[in-house]
Input
Amino acid sequence: MDQNLITRIVEAALLAANQPLSLAQLRALFTVDEPVPEGAIERALETLREGCEGRGIELVEVASGFRFQVRQDVHPWVARLWTERQTRYTRATLETLALIAYRQPITRGEIEQVRGVAVSSNIIKALEEREWIRVVGHRDVPGKPALYGTTKAFLDYFGLKRLDELPPLSELKDIGELEPQLDFDAAPGVLGDIALGEPAQAPEAAADAGEAADATPVAAADDAAPAMDDAGAMSAPEADNEQDNEEDESVAASSEQTP
Output
């Protein structure tokens, strides 16, 4: 089969698909009667990648496969096509997601130990419904608590191929940097918006993650997060619990609105 035709078929498939396509899925497009030469699909992908130079789109590889996405420099204009309100996440949700990402596998109890407050079931449910986390096993201790880890959908959303492409914890000066954005142009290794595999950081660095998560503030939606002034009038433990209780309601509401 002609290499030019193979390239056009791969390009059309990637444009028509509503999700990344793996090499296996691309190979499945060709039947036994019309086999493709060894390495032809890889050459087609490289040709398409080179063809995107200087254009408003780029071909990238994420955890689930290959996809076309909008380049970062033109994203602000293209984003105006999406008029629906952007989903915002509370501090408690982002801290929980960050701890799972950097310290996985981790139990709910271990997350609570780091944060110092109870983790609401609504937070876990919202992250599971978004398919960013899943149960990957159970700790071999009394009660067999569930162990949570991130998913391929988590990596795909943030434009990452592997967990080790997460930014070093030393670069996350504010937990607000983990605020998810519908940024389809995120380059690998850059977490401007946020998996299977080995944890990306050593235990010492992971411990710093918990401290950073509790020590830094995050910007929340005007109607999604409680006012910090009210919490400041309470004692520290009471303020944290009161804030999380209010945030839980926001998480549940956001989860219902998230496609």
Remarks:
- The chain has two domains: 3-81, 91-257.
- Residues 109 and 207 are 15 Å apart (CA to CA).
